[in-house]
Fold this protein.
Amino acid sequence: MSRFTSFFRDLPLSGRIGLGLVLFWLAVALVGPALAPHPVGAFVDYDVFSGSSARFPLGSDYLGRDVLSRLLWGARYTVFLGAGAALLACLVGTTLALTAAVCGGWVDEVLSRAMDTLISIPSKIFALVMVAAFGSSLFLLLTITAVTYVPGNFRIARALAVNVVSFDFVTVARARGEGRLHLALREVLPNMIHPLLADFGLRFVFIVLLLSGLSFLGLGVQPPHADLGSLVRENMSGLIDGAPAIIVPAIAIATLTVGANLLIDALKPVEKKG
């Protein structure tokens, strides 16, 4: 707790706001479904696009379902799918980057050219083609969005790793006979953790926006469940009336992504060992 307090105290105001927003949506994703007043797909209001009331704090949607309940459930899909895909992308990308930097030679060349080929494909086009071809199950959405952002993480992680590999302490470790696994995990990786954490945050933001875009096109999480992007798409007809059913999920996406960006920008760089 003292380390978290020290971390929070060292953050600027923008970073504290960002941390608060991120923690808020993480808490909503964790406990929100248990707090939802109605089942996610239940038709509970005879009116559609009704305004805020004591019974429906965020109104009802285009089918008379409780927006608050659907928002609490939708946040879980958006946050956990985004975080899971970002974590998977960073794990795969960083592993390949460490392999390329430590091994060098033809291994580095092959991996770099493969990632260059993959990154040349627009992320949204790749995701749309894969979802259209194989469907939009949660596992497939997780895999597609992770694969889409592996090359970007690889390029950043490789640049960091190649720089660290050139340091004297890595040369000394090689001279005393340490293996490549030791070099990668004990010498190189600890000196690139902070930039990788910042990159993880950026990947999370990109993936949330990509998932929201796919859901807006009807290719994301499927009914009766929905993520935040799906809530925006299905309630588009309420935009003219300014219905909370479309405004609230749009604000939710904005606060989640802006909060993550504020937190990333506020993180201080860590000194490299050398």
Summary: The radius of gyration is 22 Å. The domain at 2-266 is CATH 1.10.3720.10 (MetI-like fold).
